[in-house]
Specification:
Layout (H helix, E strand, L loop, with lengths): L3 H6 L5 H6 L4 H11 L2 H4 L10 H22 L6 H22 L11
């Protein structure tokens, strides 16, 4: 596990590497189920065309799933920005996977 200290002190550890370690299928599924096509339709870097208040909502939805890992990596503490960054990383991972497979992860309709 990459700790927050290692992430902040080592320029070889990227934002993507740090936050992707907290993302699993269920996190991606939660994010995809909440935002739907807005993830795939977003053309703004970091999904900043989706209001932060909505990222805050989905961040709270994934919190129970990732709080333990985040707390371990952060030596006890977590922040709302950690949760939002993890949610946005899940969205980015889904968007990349969709471009490669044309399948929507977590969607009820598996033909989309």
């Amino acid at each position: 596990m990459i700790t927050r200290k290692e992430y902040l002190e080592n320029e070889d550890v990227t934002h993507e590497q740090y936050y992707s370690q907290f993302v699993d299928y269920e996190v991606v599924k939660t994010v995809v189920d909440y935002f739907g096509d807005r993830i795939l339709n977003s053309v703004v870097p970091h999904f900043n065309d989706i209001p932060l208040t909505q990222w805050d909502v989905v961040a709270e939805m994934i919190k129970p799933r990732i709080v333990g890992l985040l707390a371990k990596a952060n030596e006890g503490g977590i922040s709302k920005s950690d949760l939002v960054c993890t949610a946005k990383m899940a969205a980015e991972m889904h968007k990349i996977a969709y471009k490669a497979t044309k399948r929507v992860m977590g969607a009820e309709n598996e033909n989309t």
